[in-house]
Each structure stands twice: as structure tokens, then as C-alpha cells.
Amino acid sequence: MSLTITTPHAEAPATALAPREQETLRHIAAGRTYLQTARHMGLSKHTVDAYLRRIRAKLGINSTAELTRLAISLGL
Questions:
Q1: What beta strand segments (E) does the chain contain?
Q2: What does the buried/exposed string (b/e) look like for 7-16 if buried means 16 or more CB atoms within 10 Å of the residue's CB?
Q3: What is the pTM of this model?
Q4: What tens digit of pLDDT does each residue of 52-72 get?
Q5: Are the C-beta atoms of 72 and 23 separated by less than 8 Å?
Q6: Contact 37, 76 (CB under 8 A)
Q7: Among residues 62, 8, 68, which one has the least CA distance to residue 32?
Q8: Would you report the helix, strand and coil content of the chain in percent, each value rounded to 5?
Q9: pLDDT digit string, tens, across residues 36-48
Q10: Is the dihedral angle over the CA atoms 37, 67, 69, 19 positive or is it negative?
Q11: Fewer CB in 10 Å around end: N or C, the chain?
């Protein structure tokens, strides 16, 4: 499943998120911490942080609240 997203913060359509980025976003939007997300996905918390930095960079998002709003709007 591929997503193309536009956000009010991005000037051009955002790059599609990778499946693991989508999964990470879903966990964070559900209120899990980086460590909880990492344990659930079998990753280190540093990898979760890297995924979230990539998502923020791709979509021009700066806060967890914006990430959560995006996840909700995408039905994640």
C-alpha cells in the first residue's frame, strides 16, 4: 500500500511513507513511547527515532501532535 500525502506544511506532495514508517507513525499516534514502539516492532529506540525523523523531514512536520493528526487523517 502506497500513500501520497499533502500537508499544509509541505509545499509539494509528500513522498510516500515506507511501511515501517507507517507502522511507527501508527504506534506513536496511539500514544506509545519510542521505547514501547521499539519493543513492539523489535527495533531499538534509536531506529524508531530515525524513522520519525525521516517522516518529519518528508512531510515538513515538527511536532508529535502534527504526526498524530496526520496518522488520524490517514486512518492509521
A1: none
A2: beeeeeebbe
A3: 0.74
A4: 999 999 888 898 888 888 888
A5: no
A6: no
A7: 68
A8: 60, 5, 40
A9: 999 999 999 999 9
A10: negative
A11: N
